[in-house]
Each structure stands twice: as structure tokens, then as C-alpha cells.
Amino acid sequence: MATPIFSVRGLVKDYDDKTVLRGLDFDVQRGESLVILGRSGSGKSVMLRQLNGLEKPDAGTVAFDGTEISSMREKELYPIRQRIGMLFQGGALFDSMTVEENVSFPLREHLEMDEEEIHERVRLKLSLVGLKGVEALMPSELSGGMKKRVALARSLAMDPEVVLFDEPSTGLDPMTSALIAHLIRRSQASLATTSVVVTHDIALARHVGDRVAFLCEGTFSFLGTWEEANRTADRVFGDFLAGRMGDEDAA
User: Fold this and answer.
1) What is the pLDDT of residues 216-242, one digit of tens each?
2) Can you give the pTM of this predicted structure?
3) What pLDDT sits at residue 248?
4) Cα(110)–Cα(122) distance, rounded to whole angstroms?
5) Which ranges of 51-163 does DSSP label H, i.e. alpha helix?
6) Which one, 67, 88, 145, 164, has least CB within 10 Å?
7) What is the rounded distance in angstroms from the CA atom of residue 227 to the CA atom of residue 225?
8) Using an 8 Å Cβ cutoff, are 188 and 160 in contact?
9) 26 closest CA partner among 44, 14, 9, 47
10) What is the DSSP letter of 30?
11) Are 127 and 145 contacting, i.e. CB atoms less than 8 angstroms apart?
12) Residue 98 and residue 141: Cα distance in Å, rounded?
């Protein structure tokens, strides 16, 4: 079999006296979209930040394309991060920059491109997420959904091999969330990227995920296809998928 794009073994992360991740083991295959589900505070975003070195594990390893990255220094991570885009939960646009300046920021930071090339790359990425003619606007002039789409365009600016999505539908109405889900799938198909999507949005998860994992009490209590998830014997995961109140909530 081909080498997974990510291979995670024995991943542990502690905060103060609390263990958030308890020895996670999983692979992400090239070209797939893996969705990570879990309740608020379960450690989904913590796990995601291990994949590009934004946080370091307390134990275990994270390998990207066969290279172990969890022990790398910040400077060593630069070429790795050029291959991994990330859509942050709040979008993380720079308020003082125009849309074009936001999307072009990683290009100017990491690549040697002339202004015409930068402008064309920005136009193409904005077109991919369904935005045209907004280059001169400021983030304050955009709706929440438009901000998230601009942030998605920026995460795709470097033509990454992988895109990490941290709660891409947070704060959005159902129709806009559905649009974001469509754009995630569309961008993955157009650019042949691998996606890891952290979310609690079941509708979005079902639309974008090839496989799904459920993070509960620091480990994956389920990891498999949606067909397998639909007939899971894991009661907590089943309650989560169905939107039912679990025993611990009713107590």
C-alpha cells in the first residue's frame, strides 16, 4: 500500500492535570477526506494542530509523507507547512488587509512570484470558492459566510497537498454551511488534495467525509466508513449521530 500522507502513533497531549489525547493511532490516506467528530471540548482541534506542528505532543509521533515532524523545530517545519493549508475556526483574516492582500499573504511570504502571477493566483482561488470581484473589499465589508470563503481561498493559495479544516461551519446558518461543505468537496476534487475536517456539524460531515472518526475520552472510539458508522454498536457515537441525549446528560 502507498505510504499514508499522515501516520499518527501513540499521540498523547496533556494540559495541566488533564489528558486530552490518550494514545491516538490512525492514518490519513492520500486523496481522502477524513472527518473528525466529537463533542465540544473533546480535543478535536487539539488533535488537528498536531498535524502541522502548531502544537507538540507530550508523547507519540506524527509523520507527514514519511517524515516524523512532531520533534521538528519551528524553522524545520517551514517547508512542511507550505504543503499543508489550514482553515482556522474563525477564519483568521487580517482585518487591516484587503481580500486580495489576505489571500496573497502566504504567496508573498513563501514564494517568489511577480505581481501579475500573484494577482492571477488570487483571482483563481477566489473564483474556486465562488467569489469574484471582491479583491478590494475589507473583511469588515464581508458577511460571515464570505469571510469563511475568503479564508478557504487563502488556505488553497499555495496549492497544498493537504488542507486541515477546523470547524469550518461554526457561526454559519444551515444554507451557508451547506455551501461551505460543497466548496470543500469541490476544492478537493479540483486540486486533488487530502482533507482532514474537524467538525460537530453532522450534515457537513456526511457531505465531505470519506471516512469518519469519533473522538471520545481522548481516543477514537470509532474510525471507519459512513456505511459502518450508520450501523455502529457504539452507543455514545450513535447518540451523537442521532442527536440524542446520552445517559450522562440525562443524569
Assistant:
1) 999 999 999 999 999 998 899 999 998
2) 0.90
3) 53
4) 15
5) 74-81, 99-110, 115-128, 144-155
6) 67
7) 5
8) no
9) 9
10) T
11) no
12) 10
The answer to whether residues 87 and 166 touch, using CB atoms and an 8 Å cutoff, is yes
Residue-level pLDDT at 245: 59
- Kindly report the number of other CB atoms within 10 A of residue 64's CB atom: 25
pLDDT bucket at 247, cuts 50 / 70 / 90:
low
The 3-state DSSP composition of the chain as helix, strand, coil percent (nearest 5) reads: 40, 25, 35
* Residue indicated by cell numbers 481522548: 218
Computed over its alpha carbons, how large is the radius of gyration of the chain?
A: 18
Name the 3-class secondary structure at 22.
strand
Whole-number pLDDT of residue 191: 87
C-alpha–C-alpha distance, residues 146 and 148, integer Å: 5
Cell numbers that stand for 228 in this block:
459502518
User: b/e for 127-145, b at 16 or more Cβ within 10 A?
Assistant: ebbebeebbeeebeebeeb
**Which DSSP letter does residue 240 get?**
H
How far is residue 186's CA from residue 189's CA, in Å, rounded to a whole number?
5
pLDDT digits (tens, 9 = 90+) for 178-221: 999 998 998 888 889 999 999 989 999 999 999 999 999 999 99
